[in-house]
Amino acid sequence: MVKRWMAHILFLLFVTGIECIPRKFPSDFKFGVGTSAYQIEGAWTEDHKSESIWEHYIHSNPKVIADGSNADVACDSYHKYEEDVEMLKNLGVDHYRFSISWPRILPNGTANHVNQNGVQYYRNLIKLLKKNKIEPMVTLYHWDLPQVLQEQGGFASEKLVKWFTDYARLCFKLFGKDVKTWITFNEPKQICLFGYGLGVFAPALNKSGELDYLCAYNLLKAHAEAWHIYNNEFRPHQKGRISMVVEFSWHEPLLPDVPAFEEAAISNLEFMAGIYVNPLYRGDWPEIVKAKVAHNSRKEGKDRSRLPEFSTEEINQIKGTCDFLAVNFYTSFLVYPSVTPQPEMYSARDAGVSSYQPWYWEEAKSVWLKVTPWGFKRLLKYLKDTYDNPEIIITENGISDGGELDDDLRISYMQQHLNAILEAIWEYGVNVSGYTVWSLMDSFEWLDGYQSRFGLYHVDFSDPRRQRTMKASARYYKDIIKNRSLDKTSGYLTCSLE
Ligand code: GBH
Fold this sequence. Notes:
Layout: H1 4-16, E1 18-22, E2 30-34, H2 37-40, H3 53-60, H4 77-91, E3 95-99, H5 102-105, H6 116-131, E4 135-141, H7 147-150, H8 160-175, E5 181-186, H9 188-197, H10 211-238, E6 241-247, E7 250-253, H11 259-282, H12 287-299, H13 312-318, E8 325-328, E9 332-337, H14 346-351, E10 353-356, H15 373-386, E11 392-396, H16 408-428, E12 432-438, E13 457-459, E14 468-470, H17 472-483, E15 493-497
Parallel strand pairs: 2-3, 2-12, 3-4, 4-5, 5-6, 6-8, 7-9, 8-11, 11-12
Antiparallel strand pairs: 1-15, 9-10, 13-14
Bound molecules: ligand GBH.
The site of ligand GBH has 16 residues, from loops.
EC number: 3.2.1.21
Enzyme class: hydrolase
Protein name: beta-glucosidase
């Protein structure tokens, strides 16, 4: 709450032309950290867990991972979750975002056989979190589909809706007494575009412009159905909330104020993220996406659009299935209109744009990640304006390096991105209610293996005990959480004369 005396001071400064931003986060702002099952748990065949699409993909193509590694053991959190909770306690976080491994709970994919060992693992973890007053924020799907379901079509099959909703209902029933924040899917873009369009993530299918759209269509229907199940059968007594996590990069027009470039930036935002978020708020794909795919499909001589069409019934079912907007943010791009975007990336071709990151933007260890806090601030304003001022929770934000304990780059990245949130809150009135650092600890970073490290804690992957060590960034974040303020030394306000 902004106190009355603070409002007076702000007003005085406003009329004198001095701009001030409070350094404090709103008193009910929540801080957390995140991980995902496949990236940390290990124990990939233990206690009847079955194979996931990522295990299948990597075991059959070890060369796709930069350092030839895999996540068979990873951080070994299946055995070391008590240590993980100790680390969370030490940081003082309000919430811990983790994911449930579908093949660990349902080894044959479907709900007709529940693996009690798998269930017990999550029960133990959740119980320990509650005991330490850490709120679990649980993702049902962070990319690890049971391989048996992939063999029946995975996200390209309509059956996904039933498979997923049976699994979701089971999780609500098993864990919903203690879990009040649910995420259905993590980053549909990575699931659909990377997995079914570009063929770089499991299941490595590459029918861009068709399978990726079909995947999005089935995924959105599965999400909506799960939301309704929660809303009707569980929310009345469990009283939690549920959403889907979408990764937003910021897309900045290469030439600002030039209409064709402005349109290219919007087009990319809609094709890369709006395509998943617009249905949640309005029931249907963004207009620009529908129009451009239909236009290109006609040009290719097809008699219908490559983009599946939602029926009126589906639109009504999907609309409004979003209790808060869950956003992952890492980086930004400069965008320009182009008739020859990456040839293999249909959605970029449909969008009619290309994008790049200039060499002089500060770099992380991951090639795709450049430091752009200004883009984060613009994105937050855009989300407020586009989706009618929703509550926003940042469900991931972080940076990779080589795993140094004195990780200045991470500290500066966090400082700048938290500052962007403060500015978005106090300058634009964006309703951001929480922030989640990716990640609690170094873990298996998909195609990069263990080469790119995102952790606040270092993990020694050559040590069978997978020793965890606090990095400087962990101490920095711990201080922020304790003070609920970005920089306690600069007091309540930082001011500048405009
Ligand atoms: C998140 O995705 C994931 O949710 C999380 O699991 C992951 O650990 C974290 O980010 C860090 O990557 O290799 O050039 O083809 C963020 C979005 C998706 C961006 C994959 C980079 C790979 C680009 N990322 N993408 S490339």
